[in-house]
Amino acid sequence: MEETLIMQSQRRKMWSAFARNRTALIGAVVAIIIVLVAVFAPVLSPYDPLAQDSYARLAPSSEAHWLGTDDFGRDILSRIIWGSRVSLIIGISSVLLGLLAGTLLGMIAGYYRGKIETTIMRGIDVLMCFPDLILAIAVTAVLGANLVNLIITIAIVMTPRFARLAHGSLLSIKEREYVVAAQSIGARVPRILRKHVLPNIFGELLVAATLWVGVAIRLEANLAFIGLGVQPPTPTWGNMIREGVDVLINAPGISIYSGLSILVTILAFNMLGDGVRDMIDPRLRGA
Questions:
Q1: Pairing with 47, which of 71, 157, 184, 229 sits 20 to 30 Å away (CA)?
Q2: Exposed, middle or buried, 149 (CB in 10 Å: 0-12/13-18/19+)?
Q3: Domain 2-285 is of which CATH architecture?
Q4: How far is CA 95 from CA 85, 151, 156, 217, 272, in A?
Q5: What angle do CA 222, 223, 224 make, to 5 degrees?
Q6: 260 or 229, greater pLDDT
């Protein structure tokens, strides 16, 4: 009973710390709105994002087309709404996949040490030597450019980050009493990692995952801009920026509105990540 009350008290303190952070609240609200827009794109979109109207090419903002049209006469607002689906699917899915793979590799390396640690962490070091975009381009060149392959590509880029974080966090708690006690009673390694290690490092991993969703979205947009993202006519924010470059003087809104969508999304997830960090870290929430 006492443990339950302590846990409830800790949860209240965590949510209180999050609620006091106005920046985090704004980020959470904006992130939720973006997610809802992506989920309900078929309902919110005023037009089919692929529908072309040759009589409305490069039309300015109007009551019919709030953000204007592109050089094929497609409604920009509708394409931005549908493009949010691609960005969020790739961003969130790739980070989750990278979180799973990186955490597993980092915990195995940190727990077993020796040759296993050396092999895994040197491989991680090699991957981290490459800039994110260069590594993503190389992997995409091998796998090809489609939705599933992009998720795998960006997950590969994210995996070393999570592996490094998980490895360092595990080393800091590996010699603590509860881990040593579990080892002394003969608990198996998977159980020790699952029951005693992961719950104590998951907070740091969650904060990093929230922050790195923005990195994944930006990386997807970079790949799309250079033609290695989801291929047209599927609307993505990166594709729209690239398409708008050719008509930047006549219709700057195509690139500007798409770029602002990326900016707002990344900013929202970064603000949310800062709030999650304040909520989880006992030093920052005053616990």
A1: 229
A2: middle
A3: Orthogonal Bundle (1.10)
A4: 15, 9, 9, 10, 15
A5: 90
A6: 260
